[in-house]
Amino acid sequence: MYKYTFIMGEDKARFFKALGDPTRLTIVGCLLKQDHCACDFSKISGKDQTTISRHLKVLVEAGILRYEKDGRYVIYSIRDDKMKQTLEKCGVEKVDSCCSGSEMDADTKKDVVKKNYGRIALGLVQGCGCCDDLTSEQVAASIGYSQQDTESFSEANLGLGCGNPTAFGEIKEGDIVLDLGSGAGFDSFLAARKVGNTGKVIGVDMTEDMIARARKNAERYGFDNVEFRMGDIEDLPVETDSVDVIISNCVINLVPDKSRVFREAYRVLRGGGRMYISDIVLLKELTSEERNDEELICSCVGGALMKEDYLDLIKEAGFEISIIDEDRDISKRQYSGYPLESIKLELRKK
After folding, report:
1. Whole-number Cα distances in Å, 172 to 176, 245, 246, 272
2. How many CA atoms lie within 13 A of 212 on its CB side?
3. Owning domain of residue 221
4. What is the dihedral of CA 123, 195, 242, 250, to 10 degrees?
5. How far is 226 from 178, CA to CA, in rounded Å?
6. Given CB 3.0 to 4.6 Å as the disulfide criterion, which of 145, 265, 276, 306 pairs with 149?
7. Which positions, given as ranges, span the membrane (predicted)?
8. What is the pLDDT of residues 293-345, one digit of tens each?
9. Are residues 114 and 67 in the same domain?
10. How far apart are CA 231 and CA 233, in angstroms?
């Protein structure tokens, strides 16, 4: 008797907690009206697909929703008629449409980012747009690069980034290093000096003009232990269990499916491998308009996740996490006071 009451109490707590979020409440309201594909819900409140997937998981685990696969689509619905009645009695209102078309889809976001960073690679614009009043050298100095770093590879320093993973990362001679979102090669070249002739650095970038500029820089600086590959970091052109260290500098926030990035990183790392990240995370949620602002997306703000959501995705991928540093002052220095920080992480593959 008491055990049954305790279980029911847990179920109720989970139920009401699941409905205690505006986004999840809107999802449920949409589904009270009609079933929806999972891909539809990214149009709610400007949330990215990774965040929406987490909300759907909470609602399923609370027993509110169910889902079934229809070919390549996943269709969500309210669990049953009894649950529909319960939700309506709780005052959850039906929503006519959660598909207003205002949310930029993942492919469009990726195209926007690719176009903008292509222009940076060609020298048509300076920086990503977050700090137009600072030179590339000033940005680099403010996030942890030495004067020697910037002078050694001035053609590769484009004033991008929110930290220096090659400085706080443990990179040893002979390591195989993978640079996610390698740009013009700045971090790749710094890593290449550390791994020496017995090691290797692989840079992956989705922007053709960046790859071309990085390869040209590799020739200019005489590196034969660095290779740049075209590709998405959500689907790495790298063999499984082949890398000792991964570095990434202010790039993962730009990617629509961040969960997949971390799963791919885990796949390519060898056992005990290390990943060093500097990235932007949010301390307060953005508005729908901010989420869809192309300039904010390209300047590493619009696509960023809340800090706890970001860390949860890393844990779900299987990594052990150590927070090395959190730079909140960068909000004022480079990001016009938006509620964010640059987080520096060390991840280890178990």
Report:
1. 9, 9, 12, 14
2. 10
3. 107-349
4. -40
5. 10
6. 145
7. none
8. 999 999 999 999 999 999 999 999 999 999 999 999 999 998 989 999 999 99
9. no
10. 6
